[in-house]
Amino acid sequence: MSAPRRQAAVRRGRDRRARAVLPVPGVERVSGDRAVSTAVVGGGIAGLAAATALAERGVRVTLYEREPTLGGRLAGWPTVLGDGTRVTMSRGFHAFFRQYYNLRGLLRRTDPGLERLRALPDYPLRHADGMQDSFRHVPRTPPWSALGFVALSPTFGLRDLARMSPRAALPLLDVRVPGVYTRLDDVSAHDFLRAIRFPEAAHHLAFEVFSRSFFADPRELSAAEMVLMFHIYFLGSAEGLLFDVPDEPFPTALWDPLAAYLAGHGADLRTATPVESVEPRPDGGFVVTAGSGEHRHDTVVLALDAAGLRSLVARSRRLADAAWRERVAALRTAPPFLVSRLWLDRPVAADRPGFLGTSGYGTLDNVSVLDRWEGEAARWASRTGGSVVELHAYALSEGVARDVEQKRLVEQLHRVYPETRTATVVDARHEWRADCPLFPVGGYADRPTVRTSDPGLVVAGDLVRTELPVALMERAATSGFLAANALLERWGVRGQTLWTVPDGGRGAVLRQLARLA
Questions:
Q1: Which of 76, 112, 122 is nearest to 373 (CA)?
Q2: Which of 57, 264, 314, 330 lies most in the core, judged by the most C-beta atoms within 10 Å?
Q3: pLDDT score, position 506
Q4: How far apart are CA 360 and CA 126, in angstroms?
């Protein structure tokens, strides 16, 4: 069985209502007497997905990545601790939800059983007032998932439920793309939550956690994006809210095997090679200026973050058309965030979860205990008797004093896990970044789509408008495959079959109720 057909046959998940997105029919591979080439600019999830689908079908792929490692925002790189231990640092924890069908399909290329992913048993959410929610016993099938969460949650009381506005919440029951953007893109996530009148604690624990997954303040984020997240996890999918994590650092578990797979399909992976410009040729194709010279390619996939795409397009003055270039120039980046990883000289309490979402603890958004699930961290903890803890703070204010914020995060850790107050920080690494896309109120219509005015130029990434119910890492993977499919279609080659959660209300009753809004 060929690679494309084998990947289409992979079971998508447990949800029998998951939606298949079929490619345009065509042959399985580019014909041998017609060599075509593609430059993929960017080696994150989107670029790797595009490169994989193209290389599997006989396209000569050259992938250009500015950094020395692959993975984009999920990259990892070596560092040496003060005790001489070589470890891998990254930009922090990422949850691989079971709804991420296309990302998981990409990982199955080198790990068919997804054995390098480890399931976390729970996803607890704790508020500083002492209340805590859990998803461990919440049913996975809608609408029982949402009802079960409400029934089991200590943050929902009868009085709270009575004060809610059911009519304002009705759009949650039938989420469709792009309809949800037509309806809610001009409203902020904050204002939508207020209109529903959720209990304050539930507001923080259930909804603001989702909005801050976009590294954005709810006042800045489109309500449509947050409502789409609610659909993906609660009311649209039967995969549930539990998730998996890689059992080793990202390079070892994910990207090194995929790089070898791509090389085996003839792809040329050029890391540490920034692209200076991409210009169309008068006779067709493109010239990519990168590294030591100019390189000709028939087609191009731009798989960059918002700042990288803006910068490259500004330097490539003849790409696509003026309207597209204006939309790219208007892309915004979410506020900065901080990841602090601490190597402690003693373990945290044995009952601490591998991941804990937090609210009300200053700027601390979550705490991970890496040695609960990552092999490298577990080996260090076993050898030293310590633990490896990671702290995240999203959507920080511009110009915040870094040393002050790093100290504050540790102070909040002491509140969450009091036993860490007596621990000594053996070593620490702090990653400050500001490169996630912002999905502002009213911004959906101006986002780039996969296709551009030039049929040989396509765009991929989590900033891209896909017209499908996907978000975050899954949007990156999905857009990468869609970009590859758009190019393969030009050559009469069948692309990648994609899967998404159902688009629309889960049942007729929910859809009928939503029409009352």
A1: 122
A2: 57
A3: 74
A4: 9
Give the count of alpha carbons within 13 A of 366, CB side only: 26
**Distance between CA atoms of 514 and 344, rounded to whole angstroms?**
50
pLDDT at 8: 44
- For the chain, the straight-line distance linking the first and the last C-alpha, in angstroms and rounded, comes to 49
Residue 130 CB-density burial (10 A; 0-12 exposed, 13-18 middle, 19+ buried): exposed
Under 8 Å between Cβ of 381 and 371: yes
From residue 71, alpha-carbon distances to 49, 153, 250, 271, 395 in Å are 11, 36, 8, 11, 22
Q: What is the pLDDT of residues 79-118, one digit of tens each?
A: 999 999 999 999 999 999 999 999 999 999 999 999 999 9
The CB density around residue 30, as the number of other CB atoms within 10 Å, is: 18
CA atoms within 13 A on the CB side of 416: 33
Over the stretch 23-73, which tens digit does the pLDDT of each residue have? 999 999 998 767 899 999 999 999 999 999 999 999 999 999 999 999 999
Q: What is the pLDDT of residues 229-268, one digit of tens each?
A: 989 988 889 898 889 999 999 999 999 999 999 999 999 9
Give 320's contacts (C-beta < 8 A, 6+ positions apart).
452, 453, 454, 457
Pairing mode, if any, of strands 366-369 and 355-359?
antiparallel
Burial category of 403 from C-beta neighbours within 10 Å (exposed 0-12, middle 13-18, buried 19 and up) = exposed
Q: Are 218 and 190 in contact (CB under 8 A)?
A: yes
pLDDT, average across residues 211-217 = 74
Closest alpha carbon to 75 in 351, 271, 345: 271
In the DSSP assignment, the letter for residue 321 is -
Interatomic CA distance for residues 316 and 451, integer angstroms: 17
Residue type for position 377: A
d(CA 389, CA 111) in angstroms, rounded, equals: 27
Annotate 364-428 with three-state secondary structure. CCEEEEHHHCCHHHHHHHHHHCCEEEEEEECCCCCCCCHHHHHHHHHHHHHHHCHHHHHCCEEEE
Range 366-371 average pLDDT = 97
Q: Are strands 286-290 and 293-297 parallel, antiparallel or unpaired?
A: antiparallel
SS3 call for 167: helix
Would you state the pLDDT for residue 6?
44
Q: 3-state class of 8 per DSSP?
A: helix
Query: Which helix (H) or strand (E) segment is 357 a member of?
Result: strand 355-359
Residue 457 near residue 319 (C-beta atoms within 8 A): yes
Buried b / exposed e along 277-292 (16+ C-beta atoms within 10 A): bbebeeeebbbbbbee
Could you tell me which residues are beta bridge partners of residue 96?
A: 244
